[in-house]
Structures are given as structure tokens and as C-alpha cells.
Amino acid sequence: MPTQMTIPTIDLSPFFIPGDESGQKKAKESIAEACAQYGFFQIVNHGIPLDLMKQAIEFSKMYFNYPDEVKQECGSKEGAPLPNGYYKYPEELPDKREFLLMFPPQSPFNSLPNDPPHYRETLDEMFKYFVKTGHILEGIINDCLGFPPNFLKEYNDDRSWDFLMACRYPPASNTENNGISGHEDGNLFTMVLQEDTGGLEVLKDGDWIPLIPSEGTLGVNLGDVIQVLSNKKFKSVTHRVVRPKVRSRHSYVFFYNLQGEKWVEPLPNFTKEIGEKPKYKGFYYKDYQNLRKIEPTTHSSSAPQESFNIQHFEIC
Ligand SMILES: O=C(O)CCC(=O)C(=O)O
Ligand SMILES: [Fe+2]
């Protein structure tokens, strides 16, 4: 791997300082470049308190150490847009992880543990902060793509399909280290908090670039919805998790999503207004999410024979 390849880190503090137009402009330019080049970037000073993130990781460490029977008490609820609650990948799959998936606090579909005490409150807090940071990123991506002000905010105005996953990956063995195989996320974008073990990697020109963990830093990857809306100007990046050997790996993964009834297709400013043909057929987001749901998780990698991704809608 070429050593000079590192994923850019962008300081979001100008977005918390009213009137810091030049700071915001600079940050937007860096994000636009990272999105076009990698489909991935890192953020610091993003508004999520460091103590909260540390607490959330500590609670996860306690929770995932409980016996499976205890964790399985948080089962998926009927009618939810995705399987939620606790889930552990079956042994026979190459991907190795377990997770706890929640929708927004107060969602009737949530199935969350009572123990360790205050874990729920911490998860709720994490969720609320991720949404706030998500709003900022959505505005930035909107402007980077040259959409009219607030276009994405108005298009994506229902936060009920967002979800947060607390994940644990077991340590790698001597013979295999697969956490999640290479995949793309189906949503707008995803924010990832990984603890200091590292393990997240991004594919760029055939090389896997590891995301070096750094305290307080979040990774952000673009998903398929942005790739389709922008007619592939911004890429939905392929990424994977490689399990470290030293110990289990914990992460928090927030999927800034789209409501299922929304229609997704390449937008005119990337197609007819510039004389380009659309690269994708349009679809309802819920149909895409359902097709991906054939598998136990949020993306299409665990069992290659079942894999389903955005290429399905590509116009050749
Ligand atoms: O756990 C992580 O660091 C990333 C997981 C991921 O890519 C996913 O769940 O889609
Ligand atoms: Fe992912």
C-alpha cells in the first residue's frame, strides 16, 4: 500500500461558530475533495462530547460480555424497517460480529437492554448527538454537490429510519481475521466511532487503506443514496472491518438514512442539465432496503451468493 495514502481529517468547529464563513468554506472544500477522491473522510470537533463516546464504549464492553442468552432477550420487533435489537452472525458466515441495533429514542421498535444500568440513556444521548452532527454533514454535502440551499434537508426530512449499531467483533484467530467483508452502505452516509484497536479499512484504487484510530475522531463514509442522486459524482465507498488480534473490537456505527417512501434517482443537475445520461434507474428507498435485507444485516457482503447492491439499478 502506498504509505502517503491517508484519509483526510476535517475540523468541523467552524460550523459551531456563527458567521465563520471562511472557516466553513475551507472545510467544505476539503470535504468535497475527499468525497470525490475517496468517498470517505474523518471529522474532529464534530459536537459529540468525548466523555459520552468513551462512556458508550465502556458500556458496550460490559454489555457484550454478558452471556448470549441475556443479550438475546433484546429480540427484533415485528414491523420494524430492519431487524433490530441484538444480533449475532451465525458461525458459518465469514463475517464475525454481534451488534445491538436501535432506531431513534422513543421508537416503538426499539428493543434495548436494561443492563448495564444507564446504557440505554447513553445510547439515546449518542443517537441524539449523531443526528445533530448528521444535520451538519448533510448541509455540507448538499453544498458540496451544488444543490439549492437546504435541498437535502427538505428531501430527507424524516429521521425515523436512522439507526445506530453498537458492534463488537471478536479478536482475530491465527487463521482468519474477517470482521465484515468489503461492502458499500445503502444509506446517505455513515458515521463510525471505532475504539483504539482500529480495524476499519477503505478501498482506494485497489488498495485497502486502514483508518488509523485517533481519540475523538469519527470516520464518515458516503452511501449509495448520495452516489445515485449525484449520478456517481460522489462515490459510495467500499470498506471492510479487519479484526485485530489483541482483543475484541468495539464500534458505534450511525446510519444517516432515508425514509422508505422516498424516490431515489440521479438528479437533473447531474444529468440532463449537463448533458449526461443517468447511470441508475430510479427506485423507492424501501424497496432497495428490503432487497438488501435478504441478508441478516445492513449491507450485502456476508454471503456472496446472496449479495445485492446498487449495481442492480445501474443502467449499462
Ligand atoms: O464497525 C465498523 O467500524 C464499521 C461497520 C460497517 O461498515 C457497517 O456496519 O456497515
Ligand atoms: Fe459499512
UniProtKB/TrEMBL annotation:
Keywords for the protein's UniProt record, in alphabetical order: Iron, Metal-binding, Oxidoreductase
PROSITE patterns the record matches: FE2OG_OXY
Family matches, as SUPFAM superfamilies: Clavaminate synthase-like (SSF51197)
Keyword field contains Disulfide bond: no
Top-level taxonomic group: Eukaryota
PANTHER family assigned to the protein according to its UniProt record, in alphabetical order: 2-OXOGLUTARATE (2OG) AND FE(II)-DEPENDENT OXYGENASE SUPERFAMILY PROTEIN-RELATED (PTHR47990)
This protein's name: Fe2OG dioxygenase domain-containing protein
Taxonomic source organism: Centaurea solstitialis (yellow star-thistle)
